[in-house]
Amino acid sequence: MQPHADPLLTPSPIRRDDGRLIGRDPRSLNAADYAAAALVQRTPMKAIRAYCLECAGSPAEARKCVTTRCPLWPLRMGRWPGRLNRRRPAATL
């Protein structure tokens, strides 16, 4: 079994996996595990936006994404679709 430095991985307990590394259950992680892995804790919406930016390569490409079958497609801009814009209208004189 090879040593590993990533605290988010653990050897598989399943024999047929031959001790290969698998991701730990995120529900079992604590703040020290996140810090050791230099993993940023984000809100789910910010995590989706970060994933879309990584997938598309840039904000402009994420905006223009045509992969409409992706379950994250409606959330790619980092906001819930159909939500009202919460900014107040500009005051008129």
Please, could you describe this protein's structure?
By secondary structure, the chain is of the alpha+beta class. The protein folds into 2 domains: 41 residues, no CATH class; 32 residues, no CATH class. Helix content is 26%, strand content 6%. It contains 3 helices and 2 strands; from the N terminus they run ββααα. It has a two-stranded antiparallel ribbon. The chain is elongated.
Which terms summarize this structure?
two-stranded antiparallel ribbon; 93 residues; 2 domains; alpha+beta; single chain
How do the helices and strands line up, and which of them pair or pack?
Layout: E1 9-11, E2 21-23, H1 31-36, H2 44-56, H3 59-63
Summarize the amount of helix as a percent range.
25-40%
Q: For the terminal residues, how far apart are their CA atoms? A: 73 Å
Total beta-strand segments = 2
Tally of individual domains: 2
Helix-strand makeup class: alpha+beta
